[in-house]
Structure formats: structure tokens, C-alpha cells
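Appendix B: a complete holo record

For completeness, this appendix reproduces one full record from the ligand-bound portion of the collection. The bound molecule is zinc ion. The inputs are the chain sequence and the ligand SMILES; the output is the full three-dimensional arrangement of the complex, encoded as C-alpha cells. No fields have been trimmed.
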Amino acid sequence: MPKYYCDYCDTFLTHDSPSVRKTHCNGRKHKENVKFYYQKWMEDQAQSLIDATIQPMVGGKELLITQNGTTYHIRPLKSH
Ligand SMILES: [Zn+2]
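The structure of the chain with zinc ion bound, as generated:
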């Protein structure tokens, strides 16, 4: 029987069956991991966007922007 790998929890379920998967996906830990996973992903997206758009505008300065409780770090451009 193939094992089911849960990306969010970074773990293998020992048995892969619809009921095992359902139980796992309804678990509190899994739901927290899913939430965390997407939160992290959103933060990464926001940080990339900041790096690509805002950062060139602020030049060589370092800035911290806090939005919805998350602090984004505006890094100075690396000089080539
Ligand atoms: Zn999971």
C-alpha cells in the first residue's frame, strides 16, 4: 500500500486510504499546518513583491513595513 505524503505536515501517513486521509485532513494539527503553509506563502509572495517593486524606489536604504502584524523587510539593493 502506498504511503500518503502530506506536504503541509511534512509527514507520511502510514496507510493511504480515503478514511485515513480524511481523518488526517480534519485533524487540528493538519489544519494549523495548512494555515501556516499559506500564511508563509503569502508572506513570501509579499516579500518578493516588495523586493521587486518598492525596493528599487527606496534605493540603498533599509526599511521595515508592518502590515497586518507582519513586518516586511525592505533590503537595500546589492551593489553589483
Ligand atoms: Zn497534514
